[in-house]
Amino acid sequence: MLVSAAALVLASGAFTAYTWLTFRAAMVEQLSVQARIIAFNSASALLFNDPVSAQKTLGALGASPSIVDAAIYDNGGGVFARYWRGRKSLIKAFPQISKSQTEAHWYTHGELSLARRIEPQGKPLGVVLIRCELGELTTRLEGYAAITAAVLAACLGAAVLISAGVHRSVSVPVIRLAETARLVSRDKNYSLRAAATGSRDELDFLIQSFNGMLEEIQQRDASLQKAHDELERRVEERTGLLHAANKELEAFSYSVSHDLRAPLRHISGFSKILAEENRDQLNADGRHYLARIEEGARNMGRLVDDLLSMGRISRQEVVRRPADLNLLWQEAWERLQPEFEGRKIEWRIGALPAAECDPGLIKLVFTNLLSNAVKYTRRRECAVIEAGQITVDGEDVIFVRDNGAGFDQKYAHKLFGVFQRLHREEDFEGAGVGLATVQRIIHKHGGRIWAEGKVECGAAFFFTLVPRKPSRPKPANSVSS
Q1: Could you report the per-residue pLDDT of 380-402, keeping only the tens digit for each?
Q2: Is the predicted pLDDT of residue 406 greater than 90, yes or no?
Q3: Based on the structure, what is the number of domains in the chain?
Q4: Structural domain boundaries, residue 76
Q5: What is the CATH number of the domain that holds 379?
Q6: pLDDT at 462
Q7: Among 141, 135, 116, which residue's Cα sits nearest to residue 126?
Q8: pTM for this model (two decimals)
Q9: Which of these three, 281, 315, 349, is where a domain ends?
Q10: Is 401 helix (H, G, I), strand (E, B) or coil?
Q11: Strand order of the sheet with strand 126-133?
């Protein structure tokens, strides 16, 4: 309605302005024609000084009802003849026309005045002045205004009717559709439907398509809910099986702890008795075999302890709390001090950060890595063991490095497997469980661990304690500090 009204008003204003301008131009042209006729007809009267004849010539203007008065002036500026309608009008002074002009007009107080020189054959004799009212223009503009108002009222009435129809057939369904979409988005209730118009037009097709989309989403949602319920049921079943497996594992651990330790203690005990009481009856080979039996029993005992420890760690929940990694490293170092007492080791320990972790488990990580470094640098006259923190691709990484026996990098993936060893037992003792335990602890914290090494050039272990952000790229295999 606003657009229609604005368009009508602008069109009416433009039409009125055009009418006003053209009417004024037509009035000027009409007066100019009359002034030329009077100038031509009154030239002889001025030449022979015949005011009566000039008066008759002006009397012909009575045929035009808009002319108020007229006058003929001689060269001296005096009134030679005049005409007026109704009461006697005041004849204005001699009009001043520049020498370069033959005719001039001007508007004053709702009137149009036009003056023209009387110059037959280029000889100036006088001036004719005609003055007319512009009432006809006002009347015409008032009529146009009335017509414009009537057309505007009719058009606005039609716009109201059309708008009401559009509101019922378009706006109301669109508003209802928008309200339905808002409720669906807010409440996630896909069972709602928008009311169809039944008009079989584009809007009705849009509403039907929207309802079809809601129905499809509702079906998918129902399918997802069904799958979710089925998944929860399976998770509950698997959780029950996992609990049962854990109980079996605990029973197995108990059995290992009690059923295997007793025979091992018997083997170790009887071996000691045999070595002490019958040493003189045994030859060198017998004593060697007896020592091998005792060493095997001790290794088997350590292996049982390592397996039980790894099983406990696998079942243990991580309890994170703020911890100073420097203190955890110091405690692990003090615990292992008897293993390297008397050896020449250069310690290069950098500042370690505070971290949210399980202190007991991380201390076990430091203990295993430090024990490995001490063990595999045993053949070095001067061992070097380093520990500290570096940054790799914006990620904080803790490392433990040594200059020991090292390993072949192509076998690095085997380091963290249970019972996986890259060195002969005759060279370095161990069961191959320590690094597997370290890996499980790091993974339980959400971090990563990897190793780098070179035969007889040492080894380095790197690990993180927090999950890596997905946006960061995977770190390179080689890390330097």
Answers
A1: 888 999 999 998 888 889 999 99
A2: no
A3: 3
A4: 2-143
A5: 3.30.565.10
A6: 93
A7: 116
A8: 0.43
A9: 315
A10: strand
A11: 79-84, 67-74, 126-133, 111-118, 103-108
* Mean pLDDT on 205-233: 86
Closest CA to 385 of 372, 364, 401: 401
The residue-averaged pLDDT of 324-344 equals: 88
| Lowest mean pLDDT across 138-152, 156-170, 247-261, 387-401 | 247-261
In a domain, 180, yes or no: no
CA distances (Å), origin 399, targets 377, 468, 470, 474 = 17, 17, 22, 17
Answer with the one of 143, 159, 175 that is the final residue of a domain. Answer: 143
Residues 360 and 308 in one domain: no
Q: Decide if 38 is inside a domain.
A: yes
Residue with structure tokens 């330097």?
Answer: 480
Residue 179 in any domain: the answer is no
Q: Residue 7 to residues 19, 143, 159, 257, 321: CA-CA distances in angstroms? A: 18, 20, 12, 98, 74
Measured CA to CA, the distance from residue 214 to residue 327 in angstroms comes to: 60
> Is the predicted pLDDT of residue 98 greater than 70, yes or no?
yes
For the chain, what is the radius of gyration of the CA atoms?
58
Q: What is the pLDDT of residue 418?
A: 58
- The answer to whether residues 438 and 325 belong to one domain is yes
User: ∠ at Cα 126 (124, 128), nearest 5°?
Assistant: 130
pLDDT of residue 103 exceeding 50: yes
What does residue 125 show for φ and ψ, rounded to 5 degrees?
-115, -25
Evaluate whether residue 308 is within a structural domain: yes
CATH value at residue 125:
3.30.450.20
Q: What are the structure tokens assigned to 430, written together?
A: 């161990």
